[in-house]
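Below is a filled-in request sheet from our internal design queue. Each sheet records the structural input a requester submitted and the sequence that came back. We keep these sheets so that new team members can see what a complete request looks like end to end.

REQUESTER: design group, bay 2
PRIORITY: normal
MODE: inverse folding
CHAIN LENGTH: 158
BACKBONE (tokenized):
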């Protein structure tokens, strides 16, 4: 059990660095509005016509951060699946609100999420350490794809 725990800790460390990199580049321009939107989703803080997209972006940011939480790996397969499902749901909200805007970035994030879902589905089969490493890598890839999408969205939500 000790080797498994060290794999989880190492994977969690990689995820923390990945998410920190994404969040520092995307949230620095929005640090004040993010706290105001979290407390009541004040649509007036967003540009006219962009409220739905910006609110969907805020929800997606929250679910991506939860997915990349190091403690998630310790909670087991069901928790990881639930976190992936939440990101998928929030991504669909962004996709619906944005229509065809950000298509390239949305598609890339969707592809990363599908790869992660496949990897999570493999947990419990074969090598535990290899599967956890794959899940960790796929979560990092989701973080990277999400960061690219957030960069585009943030430019329009400030």
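RETURNED SEQUENCE:
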């Amino acid at each position: 059990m000790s080797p498994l725990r060290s794999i989880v800790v190492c994977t969690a460390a990689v995820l923390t660095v990945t998410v920190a990199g994404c969040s520092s580049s995307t949230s620095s321009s929005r640090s004040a509005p993010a706290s105001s939107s979290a407390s009541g989703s004040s649509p007036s803080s967003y540009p006219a016509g962009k409220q739905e997209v910006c609110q969907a972006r805020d929800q997606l940011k929250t679910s991506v951060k939860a997915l990349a939480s190091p403690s998630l790996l310790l909670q087991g397969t069901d928790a990881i699946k639930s976190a992936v499902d939440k990101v998928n749901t929030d991504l669909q909200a962004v996709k619906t609100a944005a229509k065809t805007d950000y298509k390239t970035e949305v598609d890339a994030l969707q592809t990363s999420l599908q790869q992660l879902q496949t990897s999570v589905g493999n947990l419990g089969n074969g090598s535990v350490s290899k599967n956890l490493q794959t899940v960790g890598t796929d979560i990092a890839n989701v973080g990277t794809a999400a960061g690219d999408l957030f960069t585009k969205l943030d430019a329009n939500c400030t």
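SHEET NOTES:
- Residues 1-10, 13-44 have pLDDT under 50 and may be disordered.
- The radius of gyration is 16 Å.
FILED BY: M.R.
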